[in-house]
Amino acid sequence: MGNLEYGIDPDFITIVADEIKDVYEIGAEIAIVIGGGNIFRGVNGTSIGMDRATADYMGMLATVMNAIALQDVLEKKEVPTRVMSAIEMRQIAEPYIRRRAMRHLEKGRIVIFAAGTGSPFFTTDTTGALRAAEIKADVLLKATKVDGVYDKDPNKFPDARLLKEISYLEAINKDLKVMDHTALTLCMENKLPIVVFNIKEKGNLKRIVFGENVGSIVK
What we know:
The chain is an alpha/beta fold. It is 40% helix and 16% strand. The strands form three sheets. A four-stranded parallel sheet has the order 1-4-2-3, sandwiched between helices. The chain has a four-stranded mixed sheet with strand order 5-9-10-8. The longest helix is centred in the first third of the chain and has 25 residues, at 52-76.
């Protein structure tokens, strides 16, 4: 969405693609879980009386649109990319198959996971944690518009404090809004560290891959 109120900001999606390309070029294996809140958010659908499952399926379809848009920009930058959808739609995306996804990564392709888990009632956070665990990722990076995890909402409280390192249980017990509790628990059970960082700051993604202390880490 970038700086727009709705939809896909072509300038911002190009910035994100450039960040991804920089990391791709150093040889990192990259898998991406993409949300769809810029087009349709399932929770918002329920607020107008829509059935939750129906609203969530619509949200999943929105993630496919974002995935295809990001794939298009990446491939124009000569970065080989595959979109894998948890909801089958063979004309525009491969069906999600874990071993095939891992093979794509081994062959140097970026994989974008679309359509969430394929089931309603699960968030993009949970999808990210699930896919990361499935492909045996080294780390889960949560790209946000803030600098990391704060002890309270930095948009509402000027004295909010950035927490550079916290535990899974602290994030859950204090309800710090890092990710939803299902995602945090899944990461904790699989000993998967989470780095929360600001994607709008140029070079952050590459700095994290090189081991620099960027954003907040949950472990």
